[in-house]
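Suppose a colleague, Dr. K., hands you the sequence of a protein chain of 253 amino acids and asks what its three-dimensional shape might be. Before reaching for any lab equipment, you can write down a predicted structure in token form. Begin with the sequence itself:
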Amino acid sequence: MSVEALTHPLLSGAAHGFLGRRGGVSTGDLAGLNVSYSEDNPTLTSENRRRAVDAVLPGGMLQTCFQIHSPDVVTVCQPWADADRPRADALVTDRPGIVLGVLTADCAPVLFCDANAGVVGAAHAGWKGAFTGVTDATIAAMEALGAIRENIAAAVGPCIAQKSYEVDAAFETRFLEQSPENERFFRAGREGHVWFDLEGYVASRLRDAGLARVGMLGEDTYAQEERFYSFRRATHRNEPGYGRQISLIALPG
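The predicted structure, expressed as tokens, is then:
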């Protein structure tokens, strides 16, 4: 099975792909294109990462960060060793051939591109990062490299959908305290619980930041076991591991 790399027309100015679990060599609960070293045989993970990059930009130099559910962004000027990757949740660059990658397993991957300025970005937007402004910080970091906010396009990739994402009332209260308008991202559920639209919230943050071109893939990681890894699905099943997929973007070299 070949690697599946989903794309979005808004990002046509860059080499990019939202990848799932198809086309990899990992086995067992992690079967497929798992790109996380934390639970897998490192030889298999390395091969999966090589396949992922080749599916988007053959010969590209993959750069990822040690993700911590923060709003922190790193500007990539030159490649670093995987052991030296910084603690952050987003990356930006204006260097051709550098492939920016973010790992997810229900959180929302967001890819950015200003084709005119030659600047790209990638963000890992779980609810914590999205809430504290990781996408806003990514846009600002791209501007520091010469991007123009009005020219930046962004797409939200596969993530857990509202119909699969039940949270408690305290979770909702946190978002309503941020803005009463956030009520539109919640749907009532069983007593003391609601369903949260992470994808919609992230897209709204992008539009509120001044981006005129924002896309959503509308792919539910939880509901599509054969295509995507899902932390919540694995947790509900008491599985020992859950794997991660990767989303990639680069300026062709």
